[in-house]
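A reminder before we start the practical. When you read a complex entry, don't treat the lines as separate problems. The point of joint prediction is that each chain is placed relative to the others, so the output describes one connected object in space. Small molecules and nucleic acid strands, if listed, are placed in the same frame. In the example below there are two entries. Take a minute to note the order of the lines before looking further.
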Amino acid sequence: KAGVTQTPRYLIKTRGQQVTLSCSPISGHRSVSWYQQTPGQGLQFLFEYFSETQRNKGNFPGRFSGRQFSNSRSEMNVSTLELGDSALYLCASSLGGTTSQETQYFGPGTRLLVL
Amino acid sequence: DQQVKQNSPSLSVQEGRISILNCDYTNSMFDYFLWYKKYPAEGPTFLISISSIKDKNEDGRFTVFLNKSAKHLSLHIVPSQPGDSAVYFCAASVTNAGKSTFGDGTTLTVKP
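Here is the predicted structure of the whole assembly.
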């Protein structure tokens, strides 16, 4: 079974631009979560999508948004990029059932550098 | 308010010895706990988990212990191998809540 894939793997942008990152979950997984990891920091939760609906949201500004498609693929968008947005963005998928204790499986991440 | 804390940023052990990584949490609603391992330039990989109805779960060289009264869990790696050198993240979740809360990670270095 193919794992979680993320594209692109690396990205360089300048301040003020916007960026869209893509995530394809493991086949059959309906939940997709996004995390931000900055140097020396843990994984900060951005949001989670399940069945095309945002189910959970972390404490990030509205510049960070996402969506999920009917095939469970998800995109994350960051508008008006700031230098502090430079980070590794990780996508994780899980089955997303309502009765399960979820184990998330991570993609390799997209490393974003904002200049 | 950080709900999941890994108070040791780094740990160094000799090959063949035991590695013990610790994690504390504050939210008593957490009922499922996981450990992930992360190599540089890769996403975290799932290692082992434990439900709050248990106090121990073992998988090969890896054992996770949960002390609910102390809100503390630990990961034991025995024997430690150089290939275990990585960042280890502790995570906690509430069943049906759909997301995990992660600690800041502990960098484990296993010396040959």
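Discuss with your neighbour: The interface with chain B takes residues 4, 6, 31, 33, 35, 40-43, 45, 48, 50, 55-56, 90, 92, 96, 98-109, 111 of chain A (CB under 8 Å). What might explain this?
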